[in-house]
Amino acid sequence: MAVRGRPRSFDADAALDRAVEVFWRQGYEGASLTDLTEAMGINRTSMYAAFGNKEELFHLAVARYAEADMAYARQALAEPTAHQVIESFLRANADALTRPDRPSGCLSVQGALAEGGDSGRIARFLADSRLAGERALASRLARAVEEGDLPAETDPHALARYVMVVSEGNAVHAAAGAGRAALHTTVDIALQAVPRTHADVSA
Fold first, then answer.
1. What span, in angstroms and rounded, lies between the C-alpha atoms of 183 and 170?
2. CA distance 130 to 128
3. Which has the higher per-residue pLDDT, 198 or 43?
4. What is residue 6's predicted lDDT score, i.e. its pLDDT?
5. CB 28 within 8 A of CB 118
């Protein structure tokens, strides 16, 4: 990632990765500047110079999270059928929410659960980020309708919203301690609601 000003004496990417984890565990409001700078191994002056203020750092952390920890969402869109797209996304999501080497749950969900002195800007930012993912999924599902892979009467936007509701609900439960097997059971049930063409049903 590009940083401001002259070259820094620390690894900016590694520092940002550590900020991601702090925000992920504590949420935007719960993460103090002291928590962040101690985890990042830098002082406040270096943080401001390289990443901006706390809100700007959070935006960068979310982008980093989306690039690395949510790569599976982009990969799922390349699956050949709508059902495979949805199953791939929800299965990988359940795995990601319960990785033993990462905090439980989802940064983009947990960061938005508390409102604070930011006048709701963080919650809106995260909602917009999630909506971008929902729109990308809806676009892929609309293509599936056009190709006859989904029934013609399928509403791709409503189906995409349903999938995101399942993934976000699983994120909340994972953060509360639900295990991977429990999340996959929820996915099993959710997949039963995915529309199928007559050819799929008879296959």
1. 6
2. 5
3. 43
4. 46
5. yes
